Amino acid sequence: MEEINARSIFSPATGFIRRGGFDWTCNPYLGCSFGCKYCYAMFLPQNPRPREDWGRWFQAKVNALELARKQAPKVAGKAVYISSVTDPYLPAERSLCLTRGILEELVPHQPRLLIQTRGPLVVRDLDVLSQFRSVRVNISIPTDSEVVRQAFEPKAPPLERRWQALAEARAAGVTVGICVTPMLPLEDVEAFVQRIVAFRPDVLVTQHFHDSGGGFGADTTDEARRLMEERRWTEDDYRRCVEQLRQRLEVFEAEAGFFPPPSPAELVRCDIR
Ligand code: SF4
């Protein structure tokens, strides 16, 4: 891990995050120790290390709290996405508490907050998260198979711990989303669908494995392509699973699913109806 001093902790949202309705992104870290093989963030030009090293480095923005204290007023009431190019709940967050510190600085300013993570450590911060009037915790659960998870996300937390985190967030009164993004090969499609349906996430997002074939911008690695081919998981398999989900739940696909939680005014309107 490297420590860096960042110039800013909130950046104007761009790309699919901007199109989804977010104003700002917040990345307490640069790089990601979870090292998912399909991660688009490894292709970003601002990464200081070669793509082949993805998952073996990250930088912690050690002045994140100081910056958040100064800059939080500018995101008051705005839609903030945490995080777009890293995971806000890397193992290092347990001791560094950068994400937690930023959240604490944000509470008085009440942005509309989306937390996007694979890290069950998010449950540590439910006491802070539940102080936001508009918040959603999205947890990525891309498969039902630990074998597949270990192949594609070797250093990310086990799937059961993510399910547990979802349940704890919901029990704390926090709105939750499940992101099957990208959907990786499934062992038992029917059981996976059943489990998601039984949980009834507030938002469900699915996406087929993203592969722009080595094109410019967001893409995936040759290794991820090889793993998909080995398991013979195709877009038709993905479609069949999504159709089963759609019969029972609302399904948002790809970037259509990444939108902010409703504003407090919208929540009041929902209550009145
Ligand atoms: S957790 Fe997110 S940012 Fe980290 S490697 Fe996986 S997909 Fe990329």
Write structural notes for this entry.
By secondary structure, the protein is an alpha/beta fold. It is 34% helix and 16% strand. The protein is built from eleven helices and eleven strands. It has helices at residues 15-19, 64-71, 93-96, 98-106, 126-129, 146-152, 159-171, 189-199, 222-231, 235-246, 264-272; strands spanning 2-4, 10-12, 24-26, 29-31, 58-61, 79-82, 112-117, 135-140, 175-180, 203-206, 252-253. The strands form two sheets. The protein has an eight-stranded mixed beta sheet, with helices on one face. It has a three-stranded mixed beta sheet with strand order 1-5-4, with no helix packed on it. Helix 8 links the parallel strand 9 (175-180) and strand 10. The longest helix has 13 residues, at 159-171. 44% of the residues are buried. The structure holds iron/sulfur cluster.
